[in-house]
Amino acid sequence: MYAFSYEAPASLADAARLSAAGGRPLAGGQSLLPSMRLRLTNPGQVIALDGIEELAGIRRAGNALVIGAMTRHVDVACSADVQAAIPALADLAAHIGDRQVRARGTLGGSVAHNDPAACYPCAVLGLGATVITNRREISAEDFFVGMYTTALAEGELITAIRFPVPQRAAYLKFKQAASRFSLVGVFVAQTGSGVRVAVTGAASSVFRHRGLEAALSQSFTPAAAAAVRIDAGELNADIHASAAYRAHLISVQTQRAVAQMLG
């Protein structure tokens, strides 16, 4: 690990000022700290966000849930508000990593990091959520740019994410056994404007599958999902799974998610 300075601001304004000056925000540390230990990252200055109370918490706002960026995975999983409004989101949070990861990891940290196999980005895109920062609001469609890349500008901080409450939703994850990240994860949501299907773990970044969305908007059945051809051409291939296997998993996990939603 390289030498670095450590700041613990008590307000969002102070954190934003330090971040704009080149400091690296530290949320739950589940991604940043391992990369620092391996000397893959040299931030110079680390800005701890866990002392900023306004960045954590869960509240209902009309037909949406607003979840603070520093809300831990375990708090999302155990929230009665989340369990009642978007049980799929609570279930997703309950199966991220292990207990230690869920006790420290945060919603905002995961979304800002945008690991191509992370679970939260799949929920953000699948639900059509809005990422709220200290400068603006960014739609899920515009937020995820590519592998470990988002629309966040230098020094911009996520403060909360607003999740519209769907009619119903489900998240199915096929785990990579060692890391517990998604080999393929599929988030399916029925909304007033149609069906959304987001996929994680299969490509360089989370993405929506328009073919599955179109088929399920016409007929919300496992058979309709099974009839959609999943193109493996741009999917990941590695030691864990071929692109063809990931394509197969997208279909299977979508079918299972639909079956679960139908009860």
TrEMBL record:
InterPro entries xrefs: CO_DH_flav_C, CO_DH_flav_C_dom_sf, Diverse_Substr_Oxidored, FAD-bd_PCMH, FAD-bd_PCMH-like_sf, FAD-bd_PCMH_sub1, FAD-bd_PCMH_sub2, Mopterin_DH_FAD-bd
Keyword flag Ribonucleoprotein: no
Keywords of this entry: FAD, Flavoprotein, Oxidoreductase
Family annotation (Gene3D superfamilies): 3.30.465.10, CO dehydrogenase flavoprotein, C-terminal domain, Uridine Diphospho-n-acetylenolpyruvylglucosamine Reductase, domain 2
UniProt domain FAD-binding PCMH-type: residue ranges: 1-168
Pfam families in the record: FAD_binding_5 (PF00941)
SMART domains in UniProt: CO_deh_flav_C
UniProt protein name: Transcriptional regulator, Fis family
Species of provenance: Verminephrobacter eiseniae (strain EF01-2)
Native organism taxonomy: Bacteria, Pseudomonadati, Pseudomonadota, Betaproteobacteria, Burkholderiales
